[in-house]
């Protein structure tokens, strides 16, 4: 059996680091949203173990890849002796703060669950996914979610109003480990997650935009961020912010024409610019 699964990217509408845990990980509070930009993952049962291929040169196709590890853990959990052939059509930029690798891993788990008819529940798939990476459980759920602690606590919310999204991925990369290390050594201003919770409960989209925040913007230097946000604001974005530990900056637009205008302007100045929407 052969199956093709979409693997959508995510953005962080809210991201706060609550504390550093004794095990070295960090307790987080996040409001996360999937967007239409996605990888395409093709999965097929095989007799040759796990085979992984990818359209982007340089991305590892062995156990260093989250999708490969997801397949390994799935087979281990279910006791299935067959193998699987996986091909990833990459569209989400690599190391961009958009959870591209986690989205691929989530797609593999969902796809293998269907191909092998194992009947795993979403929480069971999330348990496997959490072994792979902290964003994988959210990527299994998708939509609009509050995500807490190290990523394993996911609470689905009602969908937000349909909005267009412009994503800009600057050329410079960001080390997630270095970003957390810098955050540990910086006095951070913490955005109000209680306000975000209240706005989510009321379905107050304007309030969510007003109280959005990402603490990594205080410690991660992205030189282009100011100019990207300026262009988004003059085209009437209701929110512009960095996603994850960066470097991607996104803008949320209630008016699709404003989003298109911002996209056209930004793609003249930056290489990786995408026009998408909430999904």
Strand content: 25-35%
Radius of gyration: 19 Å
Number of strands: 11
CATH architecture annotation name of the largest domain: 2-Layer Sandwich
The total domain count is 2
Helices and strands: which structural class?
alpha+beta
The rough form would be described as globular
> What share of the residues lie within helices?
25-40%
Parts with pLDDT < 50 across at least 5 consecutive residues: none
Global mean pLDDT: 96
Order of helices and strands: EEEHEHHHEEEHHHEHEEHE
- End-to-end separation in angstroms reads 27 Å
What is the makeup of the main sheet? Answer: 7 strands, mixed
Total number of helical segments? 9
CATH topology of the largest domain: Ribosomal Protein S5, domain 2
CATH class of the largest domain: Alpha Beta
Structural write-up:
The chain folds into 2 domains: 2-156, 2-Layer Sandwich (Ribosomal Protein S5, domain 2), CATH 3.30.230.10; 164-277, GHMP kinase, C-terminal domain (Alpha-Beta Plaits), CATH 3.30.70.890. The mean pLDDT is 96. Strands 1, 2, 3, 4, 5, 6 and 8 form a 7-stranded mixed sheet that branches. A 4-stranded antiparallel sheet has the order 9-10-7-11, covered by helices on one side. The chain is of the alpha+beta class and 279 residues long. The chain has helices at residues 66-78, 100-115, 122-132, 136-141, 176-184, 193-202, 205-211, 225-234, 256-267; strands spanning 2-20, 26-46, 50-54, 83-89, 144-149, 153-156, 164-169, 213-214, 239-242, 249-253, 272-277.
